[in-house]
Design a protein that fits this description.
Length: 195
Amino acid sequence: MMPKAAEMSLMGTIRERTSVRAYTAQKLDAEIVRDLLAAAVRAPTAMHAEPWAFVVVQDSEQMKRLSDRSKRYFLDELRQAELDRDGRVRDEFARPEFNLFYNAGTLILVCGPSASPLMLPDCWLAAENLMLAACARGLGTCVIGSAATGLNRPESKAELDIPADYSVVAPIIVGFPDGETEPTPRKAARVLAWH
Ligand SMILES: Cc1cc2nc3c(=O)[nH]c(=O)nc-3n(C[C@H](O)[C@H](O)[C@H](O)COP(=O)(O)O)c2cc1C
């Protein structure tokens, strides 16, 4: 782990951040998790509402249970949305050993009050802050949107101590990368107009 003084520059971090899908079993220390949450809540927030709230999951059996449940709901969604015509994703997800959370040591759920009209952008901005802060420290992250429906089921929320009137917005895995992941390419920004 990089010492704080050696954290990457902001632009370096933005260029290096990429979704990491292979992790060692090592869990994050509480102090690191707290640093990441402190970075998350520095995000801009509409009307200064600071609507975000976080759940940290580090129990690997619980994560596997949540993964198995979420996979079932995600497979239904795939079928209904006809997003996976060749069945490639279905086949991958259907493997019993496939863990939606890629066996990362830590899962952080960015949550917000469901009824708040402005909480979604705030939670996503907090999520990006968290992922950049993690990347700057040499940690890997990945948003696991496919788990959102399963995590928002009443049985999951009860198990995770998420109040009924809160929703999981951004499930993010965080951990120590097992190997290197090259940043994925991007197209240049498309400028529609520049007046
Ligand atoms: C809203 C959202 C949901 C995502 N859900 C998943 C997911 O369920 N599983 C996964 O492996 N990656 C997921 N990703 C990661 C994207 O696949 C990834 O960001 C994209 O391919 C670009 O790659 P990069 O993050 O490495 O730049 C998600 C990303 C976003 C923003």
